[in-house]
Amino acid sequence: MSIFPYIQIASDLLQTKYHFDKITAGYLFGVPYIIGAVLSPFLGFAIDKVGKRALMICLSSFILIVAYGSSMMMPECDRCYNELYPLVLTGLGYSIYAAAIWGSIPYIVKPSAVGTAFGIATAIQNIGLVIAPTLVGMIKDNTKQYDHGYFYVNFFFVFINVIGLLLNMTLYYIDIYQNDGVLDKVEVSSDDHANIEIKED
Prior knowledge:
By secondary structure, this protein is an all-alpha fold. It has a single domain, classed as MFS general substrate transporter like domains (Growth Hormone, Chain: A). It is 78% helix and 0% strand. The protein is built from 8 helices and no strands. It has helices at residues 3-16, 22-28, 31-50, 53-73, 84-108, 114-142, 150-178, 190-200. The protein is elongated.
């Protein structure tokens, strides 16, 4: 409920608060997507090798809190690149989150229910994406006297991610102490089992 709404308002934020023209703002607000496109495959590969999915999800929430907290505190200036830092952090947090969260689903549901689990997760995500932009618009319109409305919009994003971090920490606790740390584990393929057996022989 924060990443995509933030990116959606980033172009207007860059034009209103930092006085960039539309073309430059358009280039800059694409930074999180560029980072996501470049990093996501490598992060996915790394998570496949080391596991720690629940921990990575917590890390992504923390990075997003820092991103929106810093955006909230950035002073207005003329065509300075202050907002580039939150944009980069948003791209990094999004990449970690996407690689970890979607890869976690097959570990916690039965193989026969994986498709259903993906469908439910996508539906919940889309419900959030319907609600969040409306709330962001309301907050921005009613707080324009404070930093063009972006101070409390970013406060909303921080608040959402603090809740997310608490929920993710709960998930991590449950996974470690009640679910045998399944999200921390790395699945070993049958080929890897065969290689291990050969080495032992």
